[in-house]
Amino acid sequence: MHELSVVESLLSLALKNAEEANARRILSINIVVGDYTGVVEEAMSLYFGFLSKDTIAAGARINYTHVPAQLRCRDCDILLPLGRRDYRCPRCEGRRVEIVGGRELYIEAMEVE
Ligand SMILES: [Zn+2]
Fold this sequence. Notes:
Blueprint: H1 3-20, E1 26-34, H2 41-51, E2 61-67, E3 70-73, E4 97-101, E5 105-112
Parallel strand pairs: 1-2
Antiparallel strand pairs: 1-5, 3-4
The structure holds zinc ion (ZN).
């Protein structure tokens, strides 16, 4: 579980941005979460509520945008079907696959007043 440290850094970034915009309150935060980050959104929301309690982000709505995991075969240059547990290319049977999507974890937008 690394959600606590993730939320800590996202929250401090959000507070910094809000401060620079002279905002009095953060209403909502949109967070992009890739499947490969292993982050559990429920846990993030829980930590967020706890950590933001005494800040201007208290009560902010957290929206998540999901980015699915995506693998690519380096030899065939094709994208592998999603949701496979077997990291083998269906065309060449090779294992030279790389992750090309799903590692995203950042604040996409936020609403302040
Ligand atoms: Zn291949």
